[in-house]
Design a protein that fits this description.
single chain, 238 residues, alpha/beta, 33% helix, 18% strand, globular
């Protein structure tokens, strides 16, 4: 079976509870649509668990992207040349913005890792994809991404879309972007989508919005693509 979940935000206990709820096995696959870390309490345990599973496929979100750049910056050896380059690239400002947007738990957990474990984490971030297109054996087609934007349309190749759109774009859920496939996204909590039931998966116009606000006290929602069954677990990390 094929499952999709999004916006875990360091909620490691909720992640484990979800895997138990869906009876996840080595024969299944699960796609994680970004914002895996930041805000929640155990981002490194979550990443390390995902790294250990060959059938978990991470897709990058805006928090993951910002964390990768900032953590890479924090592990850079300080020299006159490197400091000059950091200043030219506004990396100190970018670090501050990331920390002020929920990055503090991620940085603290990362600093507790050994140098080897830190390197493993940075290498794992580089394995994240920007989006995935999948077609199931029953012919159902899906586009999976953290988010999107107006740059994405049915007549344009996804390879031509700027990667920023998949990381931090804003989707109009009243608009149908695709006629023959369903677009599954996170990023926007369903409690903020007009007409959606708060903290429940939202379906409309060939959209599935699955960020059910776990880290904000909502639920961790997942969907099984073969039959559309929804699964929910409480936030066990508060």
């Amino acid at each position: 079976m094929t499952y999709v979940v999004s916006d875990l935000h360091g909620c490691y206990k909720s992640w484990l509870a979800l895997l138990k709820e869906i009876h996840f096995t080595d024969e299944d696959e699960i796609y994680v649509l970004g914002d895996i870390i930041d805000r929640g309490p155990e981002p490194m345990l979550l990443l390390q668990d995902m790294m250990s599973r060959s059938n978990v496929y991470p897709i990058v979100g805006n928090h993951d992207f910002a964390a990768f750049l900032s953590l890479k910056f924090l592990t850079t050896e300080l020299t006159d040349d490197s400091i000059k380059k950091m200043e030219e690239n506004n990396e100190f400002e970018r670090l501050f913005l990331w920390l002020s947007d929920g990055g503090q738990p991620t940085m603290q957990a990362f600093q507790k890792l050994s140098p080897e474990e830190q390197q493993d984490i940075l290498e794992y971030f580089q394995e994240f994809s920007f989006y995935e297109e999948i077609e199931l054996s029953n012919g159902k087609r899906f586009l999976l991404s953290h988010t999107g934007g107006d740059e994405i349309c049915e007549t344009r190749s996804l390879e031509e879309v700027p990667v920023d759109a998949f990381i931090s774009g804003h989707i109009d859920y009243d608009r149908q972007y695709f006629s023959e496939r369903i677009w599954v996204t996170g990023h926007t909590t369903t409690r903020t989508i007009p007409g959606a039931e708060p903290d429940r998966i939202y379906r409309n116009n060939n959209h599935m919005a699955i960020d059910c606000g776990c880290v904000f006290g909502g639920y961790l929602g997942a969907i099984r693509l073969e039959d559309g069954k929804e699964f929910y677990v409480e936030n066990f990390d508060i």
